[in-house]
Amino acid sequence: MLIATPQSMPFEAALPLQSGASIRGYSLSYETYGTLNADKSNAVLICHALNASHHVAGVYAGQDKSEGWWDNMIGPGKPLDTNRFFVIGVNNLGSCFGSTGPMHVNPDSGQVYGADFPVVTVEDWVNAQARLLDALGIQKLAAVMGGSLGGMQALSWTLQYPERVAHAVVVASAPNLTAENIAFNEVARRAIVTDPDFHGGHFYQHGVIPKRGLRIARMIGHITYLSDDVMNEKFGRKLRDAATRGELQDYLYSTQDVEFQIESYLRYQGDKFAEYFDANTYLLITRALDYFDPARSHGGNLTQALARATCKFLLVSFTTDWRFSPKRSREIVKALLDNKRDVSYAEIDAPHGHDAFLLDDARYMRVVSSYFDSVEKEITA
After folding, report:
1. What value does the mean pLDDT take over residues 241-269?
2. In this predicted structure, what is the pLDDT of residue 236?
3. Could you read off the pLDDT of 277-331 as tens digits, one per residue?
4. Which of 5, 138, 163, 342 is in the most buried spot, having the most CB atoms within 10 Å?
5. CA 309 to CA 79: how far, in whole Å?
6. Catalytic status, residue 370
7. Catalytic residue (choose from 48, 104, 352, 354)
8. pLDDT tens across 120-143, in order?
9. HEC states along 148-181?
């Protein structure tokens, strides 16, 4: 069993941000798995999605139920084999899982950041990750890999530091968000900021948490991560046990309580999320999602935007993922091919929706495993 050990790297020098602001005296939480080879050529950086962290694989000592969020993908003998690669997971700046974020103290003011934490973008995260790699003595990555928002970071790595990336694995991602996706994010944010316990983002000072808003935000998000087929298969129109006992007619129309199993499931997910995720972090990360658009500075021309990328690519999408649909991955593939880049693409017919990138689909795992076999051959050639 792979045992994970959290680490933290402090940075005193200011990090310039895309917004024009900067942040200093911050730290990044990270974990590493496997062994860095002598010439430091086998490093793979994993970029995380919205509510994940640096805990990518393995378990913590003495905690059997602490598997990393991509533990099925990364570890000894797995598609990204830690017997062959040195894997690095980094928690993004502004997150609530160890790296400096809104819950931490601003060294310039001596006060908790709260809503005053600076706006961060995908590009800012990549720059911060590059500083961490510098500190680890890693100049070039064998690969950078991520799913969803993590895939956007992987793509951005190939544009910001093309000389430092040999391969990019972009899973269930997109070159930017559609208007529908931005709309979902905005509704979720409004649920949080209109919660009476939000207090303009300075709820820490009041000793409260805007749990109601966080619950609704998570429920909205979770609906978009699943496909209609999966939701129907798991829940359909089934009523909870309590609703199937006694006089059903009286029950249905006399209560506003949970009646359908899908309602119970969503409330459970929302309650769980509100216990561990920070509201200001949710606002920051969803905004970073909205802002990402490398083609914007090229008049919307994605082909021109991706001309800077020089590495080889693997892109993977899933047929029932309507939040980051295969069409969006194919846009990236076309733009890369227009630039005559080396691109592999797999469109997996899977029923699980956006969450498929986290699950054990045998075809998906084989594609990733085969790709990393080819990456290793290049390293050892």
Report:
1. 61
2. 60
3. 999 999 999 999 999 999 999 999 999 999 999 999 999 999 999 999 999 999 9
4. 138
5. 25
6. no
7. 354
8. 999 999 999 999 999 999 999 999
9. CHHHHHHHHHHHHCHHHECEEEEECCCCCCCHHH
Give residue 252's identity as a one-letter amino acid code.
L
Residue 72 · residue 360 · CB < 8 Å: yes
Q: Which of 53, 148, 317, 329 is catalytic?
A: 148
Residues 184 and 194: their CA atoms lie apart, in Å, by 16
Which residue segments constitute the domains of the chain, with CATH numbers given? 3-176+294-380 (3.40.50.1820), 181-285 (1.10.1740.110)
Active site residue 361: no
Q: Catalytic site residue 354?
A: yes
Q: Which residues are annotated as a binding site?
A: 218, 355
Q: 253: pLDDT confidence band, cut at 50, 70 and 90? A: very low
Spatial separation of the C-alpha atoms in residues 85 and 313, rounded to whole Å: 18
The CA-to-CA distance between both ends of the chain, in Å, stands at 30
Structure confidence by residue, pLDDT tens digits, 30-79: 999 999 999 999 999 999 999 999 999 999 999 988 999 999 999 999 99
Catalytic residue among 167, 321, 352, 361: 321
| pTM confidence score | 0.94
Indicate the annotated binding residues for substrate: 218, 355
Q: Which of 213, 323, 216, 324 is nearest to 266 (CA)?
A: 216
